[in-house]
Design a protein that fits this description.
With 292 residues, this protein is mostly helical. It contains 11 helices and no strands. The longest helix is centred in the first third of the chain and has 34 residues.
C-alpha cells in the first residue's frame, strides 16, 4: 500500500502566508551616513590628488582647476627648499619614532604586566600627555629650551633646531606607543610564558621566544603611529623649530605667497605610501591561519 502525499490545499488547510519583511529605516540611514562621513573625511585628500594634475599659468597653486598635466610630477624635485623641509621631517620622524617606540614599549610592558605603587599616577600622566592641548605642550617645551639656553655660560644647552624638534617629538610620542603596547600586553595569556619557564626556559628566553612575538604587532603599530605623528606635527614643531623648517611648517609659510603644486604631489606620494602600508598589513593579517 503506497502512501499518498497531499498538498496543504488538498487537505483543506490554508497555505501559510509568507510576509515580506520590511527593512528598518536604519538599514538605509546608516549606510548613507557612513558613506557621507567617509566622503567628508576623504574629500580634502581627493582635492589634493586632483590638484597635483592642475594646469597652471604661473608657478603657484590657484583655486581654478584645469585638467590635466604631469608636469608637476616630473618636476617634483624642482623646489629645493621644499625638498629640504621634507627631508628634515623624515630625519626627525625616523629616530623620534625609534626612540619613542623603545621607551614606550618598556612603559607599556610595565603598565600591562605589573601592579606597583604609583601605577595609577603613571597611567594618569600617560593620558595627560595625550589629552593636553598641543599648544600647551609646545609652549612649555619652548620655555624649557629657552631656560636651558640662557643658563650659565658653558652649561648644558639645547639650541632651537633639529635637536629641540627631535626631543619634543619623542616626548609627545611616548604616550601613544605606551598605550598601544599596553593594550596588546593586557590581552596576552601569561600562562604561555609560565609554561615556557616550566620547560626550563630562562625568563629572558621566554620573553624573546614567547612574549616578544606576541606583542610585536603592537610595537610595530606604535612605531608607525609615532612616525606619522612626528611627520605631520605642526603646532609643537612651530614652537621649538627655531629657523629649521619641516614639511608642515614650510607649507604653512608658503601659504602667504602661494603654495607650489609640488606640495600636492608630495602629499599624494605620502598618502599613497601610507595607504599601501595599511593595505599590505591588512592582507598579511588576513592570511594568518586562524586558530581552530
Amino acid at each position: 500500500m503506497s502512501a499518498v502525499v497531499t498538498s496543504p490545499g488538498e487537505t483543506g488547510m490554508p497555505s501559510p502566508v509568507v510576509r515580506k519583511k520590511r527593512r528598518k529605516i536604519t538599514s538605509y540611514f546608516l549606510p548613507v551616513f557612513t558613506g557621507g562621513m567617509i566622503l567628508f573625511l576623504a574629500f580634502p585628500v581627493l582635492v589634493m590628488i586632483v590638484y597635483s594634475f592642475n594646469v597652471l599659468v604661473g608657478e603657484r597653486q590657484t583655486s581654478k582647476f584645469t585638467c590635466c598635466t604631469l608636469k608637476w610630477w616630473r618636476e617634483i624635485l624642482y623646489v629645493p627648499s621644499l625638498n629640504q623641509a621634507l627631508l628634515m621631517s623624515i630625519k626627525v620622524a625616523i629616530p623620534a619614532a625609534l626612540l619613542a617606540t623603545a621607551m614606550g614599549t618598556f612603559v607599556g610592558l610595565v603598565l600591562g604586566r605589573y601592579s606597583f605603587r604609583g601605577r595609577g599616577a603613571t597611567n594618569f600622566v600617560i593620558f595627560l600627555a595625550i589629552a593636553v592641548p598641543e599648544i600647551v605642550l609646545g609652549s612649555s617645551l619652548l620655555t624649557m629650551f629657552v631656560q636651558l639656553n640662557v643658563a650659565k655660560p658653558g652649561g648644558f644647552t639645547i639650541p632651537l633646531g633639529y635637536s629641540s624638534i627631535l626631543i619634543s617629538h619623542v616626548a609627545f610620542s611616548i604616550a601613544f606607543v605606551a598605550i598601544t603596547v599596553r593594550a596588546r600586553v593586557s590581552g596576552l595569556d601569561m600562562t604561555l610564558e609560565n609554561a615556557a619557564q616550566d620547560l626550563f626556559a630562562t625568563p629572558r628566553v621566554a620573553f624573546v621566544k614567547i612574549t616578544l612575538p606576541l606583542i610585536l604587532p603592537g610595537i610595530v603599530a606604535g612605531f608607525l603611529l609615532a612616525f606619522v605623528l612626528s611627520l605631520d606635527d605642526f603646532v609643537i614643531t612651530n614652537f621649538v623649530n627655531g629657523s629649521t623648517n619641516t614639511f608642515p611648517t614650510w607649507v604653512y609659510g608658503a601659504v602667504k605667497i602661494g603654495i607650489p603644486p609640488q606640495v600636492n604631489v608630495w602629499g599624494t606620494v605620502l598618502f599613497t605610501v601610507g595607504v599601501s602600508i595599511a593595505f599590505f598589513s591588512l592582507i598579511r593579517s588576513s592570511r594568518k591561519p586562524k586558530a581552530a
